[in-house]
């Protein structure tokens, strides 16, 4: 049996839940939210659809003890409106203050439940809050990781594929670093239809910086139009979980702990039944290595600063 | 190629779009919304996920001319907030005023596009507005129908299956009539695991009226908790469309035109490539026939009254 | 994790394996066959396809110790050619002699493995050999059941739906009894689009006996044309397993133990995590009850006779 | 509507048909085989399963006129037993004699049908017979292509992923050339988890020639154990077809016409609604270019020789 749980059913958590149910991925799903009416509403809406799909998923709500034998735990809590207010003030790390409070509430409950599966986080600021979660739940660094730049990479693939009029799946390579401002596309890793994008860009006079900017702007356009983003992030989260359940040892980028930099940060890894099976070190250019270090340091420093301030 | 279009990407339209993309059902999808930023946001969010799924769906926005060769058109426009305000005043048909305006805007555009596929409506008041759409688009009564009590029936199945601790799919039978207050469960059509629910209720001392009320309350609980409902209604809409595309001649209940009562109303039908292939007349009890007539008359009368008032 | 095993990868076992892999249903799959080259060939063919599908399934072969934590065990062994020879001599129970030998080989190994999941059998003669398996493995009657007339019912649905030009899924009701000659369609349970087929047949002057015969002939036509049948039987087997994994408590017909008749026989049941959660007793007509008793008695008597003869 | 047709329902054609039906990919499927009983048997087996799956596919048989509005035509005819006999005599191109006769039979019928979709071939010798088909049907070189080394590449991915204990999907890169003896793995294109396999091989002292041989031996092991291969080849064929239907412009390797070498040969291409949208030229090493030319020349020469001999 595949048993999933989700803490926090805002737009992202709800889209994850729907994906797990409509595609018959989860056999059992536990939804936890401090807003009990919301948890109940999602439970009912997902149950109401089950007369119309091929599979069945048993759906439970608001019971931490169910985590004891849960395979995959998504942590998708957040307060998008708190975020909006802060963001207006130009503070990208604004959610940390809020999500730290969430972690302080949920981490002891996760710990007490006896949860020993794999946890996948989508909260923001993604890298820092996942580290905070790891520290507070006592889960191993292998067991807990975040979507991180798996989403940013998907957006880069989309933007590059538009440029070359092809399937986003034809675009390989990664966006490294923070799921935030200091991230960067490691263009040396990017291929389009098997061809190095750096070569293609030269031939066509393309400005890769502009493509990088377009990917970032795309995420922003979604946010401005809908006031949240959910489909792509939910799809990324579910995909990571499937690699865990089938012990696929699949190569994806995500936010996981870097021994080298002493922080969670977006980097390629192999995902299997224990979560992060290994981190993959690709031969980046010197410039990319510098950017990577900078991004990791940014996460680490801000984390330390804000951790102190808010305790 | 399976070509879909959606007019209106509020919560329902967006959930329909996501379902079509994540399950690889649509080869091409056209999203139309008067809120251009919203249409663009949904397009981008759905495109961003395509590097992470097996299939590809080409997604276009805001171009009515694309309807010329569209197979399935979902009309999922609405203004849930206008609805909320009216509803506070105790007016169940409150959305009609608003959705009629939408129809006046979109019907000529649909007509002009040369659309000749099948249209599935989820707007409210479901039965009346679908009739209004049919009249204003000039589409045949076969070609355009609505989810209607297909959703209410799913909710009844859920509530009954809870009572008997079984899969909702084990519950057959239908909720007839208006997708609204005057609807009723035709208990004589309902079986649980192949057994007549009326017999089972007698044996167990169950009150079927209470079950009917529970189903209605369930829909309300979703609405109260989330401020909208989307997963179950989107699942119903997509399921109906799949029956059209594969010419399945599947037996579902939906809101379609009744020659007998001269109105769109929730009744069992056979769905195939032309839309409504035939209406099915089940042997209801006298009491059920009376309720059905009452519900159909309610729709018809209100439609005529409101049609006059608002023109 | 969903862990499946299959004993016997002839055409049915291989089709079950492919279904589990191509639809991403199994996370892990253990294939066991006395023909080691065949087991290896299926393993390789299924592994070769994994670069081309979205999900991953880990595939192992020929290790009974893997059954210790297997959730679902399919037993799909058989010798279609032995069967053909015997069948030419007019002996429908011909496979029993052969499949009993298989059970004598595999039952102790299943027992020794510590298997404690749910076993689903497709061997022939289906009802008798499942009982023999149950007795020899020591699995509970709840834990082991067979596809039985779930397949014959699907064929009846197909034939009836052809007659009424509709989706086979619109046809409810069951073929009861032996997965063999003495089976019968309980027409009193059959509805088409919600209408009693007995009524419809009267109106249209349809001969239901002819439809029953057509369903049987259909199975035969498959056999004659392909020399085996696999797609429909594999689909039935997988569907039953999914109800177990998600604890769906779904109402299906299958061959399970009848307390009343003291034998495995095709009858409606509710399928959940323990296998057979309960047997459903539908109100059959007197004639149907007689046929059901006859069919159950046939299985029981032949089983006893052949059990003695071949020991 | 997605309309598919299959000419030839041996093991490969049948597996393609089952995949299209069980995954709900095809709305309509036409099966054509000179063995009418076999075509009928497959039709029935696939119809019998439709009461047990979520979607419906209308299945027709043996009517070439249905090709007029078919989107995708698979040509999967062959005579595996004729092949076996010849192969015993050490003649790899043995099937050509046989499949040419098939093409002479079916090509005029395809032409007469007015078929204007995309045709995907799996017959052997794959590259030569596809060219022969193209010439005889009058379909454009864009419209008709073959699975070719898409399968061999999948096998290479499997073998390499075994070596590195990872998901086959983590292995990128291609096997070029003939779907036969003269093929080769272009190791310069192969990456594992984003790392160049040539580098990894050096570090680990791996012999890439042995991996190449293992992939070839794997295909052979499947053949020896099952007497045919079907799951992986069917999966490859269906995947190619999905890229056509959704105009995915996906980068896959397949056998398509090379202007440079004047023959069909396995090379990377972009697949979209017209079939082959463009051929991709990757920067191979000199050694790989030589092997590629050799493989293309081999196909061309044998084709010309055998074409003369057998006319």
From TrEMBL, chains A, B, C, D:
Pfam families noted in UniProt: Ldh_1_C (PF02866), Ldh_1_N (PF00056)
Q: Does the keyword Transcription regulation apply?
A: no
Biological process (GO) annotations held by this record are: lactate metabolic process
Q: Which residues form the active site?
A: 179
- The residue ranges of the Lactate/malate dehydrogenase C-terminal domain are 149-303
List, for all copies, the residue spans of the domain called Lactate/malate dehydrogenase N-terminal: 3-145
Residues that bind NAD(+): 8-13, 33
Task: Report the family membership.
Answer: Belongs to the LDH/MDH superfamily. LDH family.
* Name of the molecule in the record: L-lactate dehydrogenase
Organism from which the protein derives:
Sporolactobacillus shoreae
């Amino acid at each position: 049996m595949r048993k999933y749980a989700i803490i926090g059913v805002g737009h992202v958590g709800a889209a994850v839940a729907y994906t797990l149910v409509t595609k018959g991925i989860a056999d059992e799903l536990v939804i936890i939210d401090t807003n009990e009416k919301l948890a109940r509403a999602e439970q009912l809406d997902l149950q109401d659809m089950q007369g119309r799909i091929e599979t069945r998923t048993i759906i439970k709500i608001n019971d931490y003890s169910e985590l004891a034998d849960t395979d995959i735990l998504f942590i998708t809590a957040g307060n998008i409106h708190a975020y909006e207010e802060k963001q207006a003030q130009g503070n990208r790390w604004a959610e940390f203050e809020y999500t730290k409070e969430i972690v302080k509430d949920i981490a002891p409950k996760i710990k007490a439940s006896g949860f020993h599966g794999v946890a996948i986080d989508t909260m923001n600021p993604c890298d820092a809050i996942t580290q905070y979660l790891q520290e507070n739940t006592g889960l191993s660094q292998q067991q807990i990781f975040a979507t991180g730049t798996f989403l940013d990479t998907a957006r880069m693939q989309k933007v590059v594929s538009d440029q070359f009029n092809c399937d986003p799946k034809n675009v390989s390579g990664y966006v490294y670093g923070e799921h935030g401002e200091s991230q960067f596309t490691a263009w040396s890793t990017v291929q389009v239809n098997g061809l190095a994008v750096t070569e293609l860009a030269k031939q066509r006079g393309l400005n890769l910086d502009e493509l990088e900017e377009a990917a970032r702007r795309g995420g922003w356009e979604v946010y401005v139009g809908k006031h949240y983003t959910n489909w792509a992030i939910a799809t990324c989260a579910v995909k990571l979980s499937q690699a865990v359940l089938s012990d696929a040892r699949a190569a994806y980028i995500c936010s996981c702990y870097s021994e080298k930099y002493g922080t969670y940060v977006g980097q390629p890894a192999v995902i299997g039944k224990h979560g992060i099976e290994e981190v993959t070190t690709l031969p980046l250019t010197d410039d990319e290595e510098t950017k990577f270090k900078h991004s990791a340091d940014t996460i680490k420093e801000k984390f330390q600063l804000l951790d102190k301030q808010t305790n």
